[in-house]
Amino acid sequence: MTEQAMRPQFMGARVKRVEDPRLLTGQARYLDDIDLPGMLEIAFVRSPYPSARITGMELNAVKSAAGVRAVLTFEDCPILLWQRDSYQVGQPVLAHNEVRYVGEPVVAVVAEDRYQAEDAAELAVVHYEPLQPVLDMVQAIEELPRRVHSHASNVFYHKEYTTQGFSDAFAQAPRHLAATFRTTRQTAVTLEPRGTAAMPDPASGRMTVYASTQSPHRIRGDLAELLGWPENQVRVIVPEVGGGFGMKANTYPEDVVVVWAARHLGKPVKWVSDRTESLLTDVHARDDIHEVEVAYQDDGRIIAIRDHLMADGGAYPAYPFSGAVGETSLASRVLTGPYQIPYIETVIDCTYSNKTPLGAYRGVWGPIASFVQEGIVDRVARSLSLDPAEVRRINMIRPDQFPFRNAAGMIYDAGSYGESMEEALRLINYKDFRVRQSALRAQGRYRGIGISVFVEPTAMASSEAGSVGYESVFIRVEPTGKVTAAMGLGPTGQGHETTMAQLIADQVGVNLEDVVILHGDTDSAPFGGGTGGSRSGPIGGGAALVAGREMRQRLVKLAAHLLEAAEEDIELGHGQAWVAGVPDRAMTIRQLAEIAYTHVKRIPPGMPIGLELVARYQPEQSVSFSNGTHIAEVEVDPLTGLVQVVNYVVVNDCGRLINPLIVEGQIHGGVAQGIGSAFLESLRYGDDGQLMTTSLSDYLLPEATDVPRITIEHLVTPSAGEGGIKGMGEGSLIGAPAALVGAVSDALAPFHVMVDRLPVTPDDVIEWVTARV
Amino acid sequence: MNSKVPLKLTVNGETFDIEVEPRWLLSDVLRHQLGLVGTHVGCEQGACGACTVLIDGKPERSCLTFAIQVEGQQITTVEGLTRGEHLTPLQESFSAHHALQCGYCTPGMLLTATALLEQEPHPTEQRVREAISGNVCRCTGYQFIVDAILAVAGDTKEDVR
Ligand code: FES
Ligand code: FES
Fold first, then answer.
1. Surface of A (1-20) touching B: CB under 8 A
2. Which residue of chain B comes nearest to A674, CA vs CA?
3. Which residues constitute the domain of residue B60?
4. Do B38 and B100 fall into the same domain?
5. Which of the listed residues B80, B107, B122 is the one where a domain comes to its end?
6. Pocket of ligand 2, candidates B91, B95, B104: which has the most ligand atoms within 8 Å of its Cβ, to mutate?
7. CATH number of A3-28+470-617
8. How far apart are CA A525 and CA A533, in angstroms?
9. Which fold does the domain A411-461+622-773 belong to in CATH?
10. How far is residue A383's CA from residue A391's CA, in Å, rounded to a whole number?
11. Are A596 and A589 in contact (CB under 8 A)?
12. Tally of domains within chain B
């Protein structure tokens, strides 16, 4: 049978996105653009303390303020996230007796518009009795200075793992080194802030929830469960989403309050975060410490790594995905990256603190694990005065070792680890670099190169988007021959309407513009996991291929019957079906569809009426690893401490590409975020537990002048899954920070600097170079 | 302080007679009074550039401007760039170069770039980067935006639009 589309016409092509025209003309509709008659808006009164008992509230002035319709506290809306008690702690959607982080919602003020809601919220008086905040995760492990939740240990997740034979191997190695790696809190900062709206439908009794989310079915399930409603009474519609990056995969307290208020007031209600609220309450990420010891040989071969991984999870585990657990548990399993380091021993402690809950930000564990792993290799190289590229070569997993089982038991499918590094070294002209570097050093200029060879586990069963290991596609060839497909993905700028259409168009044999992809509506889409964990390409794309192929088989069967030919002789393409070698014996897909729906007597026996089906795809392998190499060249000014990225190359291997333009866009964006992660972005808490970076003038994002031109090359090692596709949404941010700070270590080698933190600030640089001259 | 005052606002060549509270931001008035929701709000702190509109041809942040400040001035929003059915060359170039992902920064980027190209039809790459440095894009890493703008600058001799 001709099951495969002839030669893919659209998969692999750099096609323009179908999403673009509406976005370019200001016609797209994001959450805050939804305006329903009679819609009320919410402003939240938030905790000004990291930790305090609530001793009283005076809300009468709020209630009688102009335009106010309702003032809600926990007494009104007594709902806890995490009712399933996985962590013994559930966050109340509005604070209950105690506040545990600055920004925690305490009172919700519902008014006729946002201006009135905010005016009224300012009139709220909440009496607090401050408590000593828990701010240091190392102390928190010892339950010091106190417990964040009196009934629960500060350590809410603890796990240990040891490769058999670790102790002997570690002890017998001739050389050892130790280092501590620290990341400072960062967050996704989607340019569109979070927001939710809800509209009760009095006629049907159902609730329509507009959510700026990555995971429509998950949030529908969460809301139904938390509010105690049947799931089929909730419809989630996701409008255009202005970025997600993992942060919009959670269900937040505000989501529940908005929906609750809409139901109880019988009115549409909306809440949109302002930027200060975003920085205070969007899930934070990357609050980790790794205390590492390494055993290695004189030739640079790394034998064993011991790591105590700690993560500050904030006041509550974010619902339903704790970033602290995500950042540590997966990091512990891929800490050896692309290297064949045989032994590992890890201890994980995730703790509560009086800070914002930790959730997902693109890459989750990856940027931290890469930073640690490449930091280890660079330290080994420097201690032995070996070339860092050479130490990588010695330790790299070889092509003949795939499938490779790493020291933590993860199975890597085939990748191009060594090849990607060699290609990247060639692109950046590494051979000549050392010569250039010493010439510049002689002039007092400090340039360095950082190499980051990354692995990116993609298409896993569970991610921040949920624990759904498959995706579903509902596909219909309309009576006119046009194709409509609905999916449960939650794109936030990745262009799924284009990429999924490319895959389906090839299979069904129609043109790209004849395919419409629907997403973001739980009434039309079959159940799906949503977007997160780099799963949409390999799992969602896989499902699109399967659905397209099944529809193709239906069309072939029908065409064979009508054209009186054997099925294996039927070809499909360009909106036509024809008999191979006899182009005159042809029908258009439109004609076939018309028969399938209206002249149903002509359908072959046993074939269902119509052209509709649902297909699901679950990859056989539980994970597929993308890989690649980033190399950054930076120049560090030892006087100002400023780092300039002067050259950047990426060699990326995500298996077969659906649309290289989109893949490259993802890489550029991830590298830019990596520059933010490495040099700019930092959520800083004061000793009193106040977040000091609550505007975009304090929390610095990369601008166009901070990001260099990036050279990209693709390698293709297909996965064993449908289409050979691997995920790639996170790899660029996984690889970039390690390359960038590695380059700073290299540039400042004359000062004996080895970067041990993310981000590196100008103050850090100045301190290092002055301390060590 | 919440009493409304009459305001004549000229947006995309059309004049609107509306009533606004003096404290209302231009961004809010454009979005919620006139329904021109193509102007996006990313921070209301003057830091991200998502709310950029042209006021008498100059890119300005509509979140830092009160509506009553711009009476009598010509305001251009993203909705005013396209005349008729077709995308402008700059919009076309954004699509061809994949200069947008989530699209949230895009209207502000287009307006900033439009003003730049009116002023300087043939900017260098560095000039383009400087000109858009007040417009944050969290998705694209800027390279394709820069390429899209440069491609239009290369295409046109003198006059851009
Ligand atoms: S919304 Fe105006 S600058 Fe960000
Ligand atoms: S395209 Fe998403 S912020 Fe620019």
1. 16-17, 19-20
2. B141
3. 5-80
4. no
5. B80
6. B104
7. 3.30.365.10
8. 20
9. Aldehyde Oxidoreductase; domain 4 (3.30.365)
10. 11
11. no
12. 2
C-alpha A75/C-alpha A691 separation (Å) is 28
B107 CA → ligand 2 middle, Å: 10
Can you list the positions of beta strands (E) in A73-145? Answer: 98-99, 105-111, 125-130
ipTM of the complex: 0.96
pTM (2 d.p.): 0.96
Q: What is the pLDDT of residues A196-227, one digit of tens each?
A: 999 999 889 999 999 999 999 999 999 999 99
- For residue A209, the CA-to-ligand 2 centroid distance in Å is 24
A34-131+190-281 belongs to CATH 3.90.1170.50? yes
> Which ligand lies nearest to the CA atom of residue A495 in the structure?
2
A268 near A197, Cβ under 8 Å? yes
Using alpha carbons, select from A285, A268, A145 the residue that is nearest to residue A197. A268
Name the band, by pLDDT with cuts 50, 70 and 90, for residue A528.
Answer: confident
Residues of chain A with Cβ-Cβ distance to B45 below 8 Å are 275-276, 695-697
Q: Kindly state whether residue B104 falls inside one of the protein's structural domains.
A: yes
pLDDT reading at A731 higher than 70: yes
Q: How far does residue B126's CA lie from ligand 2's centre (Å)?
A: 20
Place of tokens 């026996």: A605
Q: Which of A21, A191, A662 is opposite residue B138, by nearest beta carbon?
A: A191
**Residue of B86, B138, B146 to mutate for A, most A C-beta atoms under 10 A:** B138
Q: Whose CA is nearest to atom 3 of ligand 1?
A: B46
* Mutation target vs B (from A18, A19, A23, A24; most B CBs, 10 A cutoff): A24
Tell me the C-alpha distance between A496 and A516, whole Å. Answer: 11
Give the integer Cα–Cα distance in Å for B111 and B82.
12
Are residues B111 and B143 located together in one domain of the fold? Answer: yes
Q: Which atom of ligand 2 is nearest to the CA of B50?
A: 3
**Distance from C-alpha of B2 to C-alpha of A602, rounded to nearest angstrom:** 70
A369-420: pLDDT as tens digits: 999 999 999 999 999 999 999 999 999 999 999 999 999 999 999 999 999 9
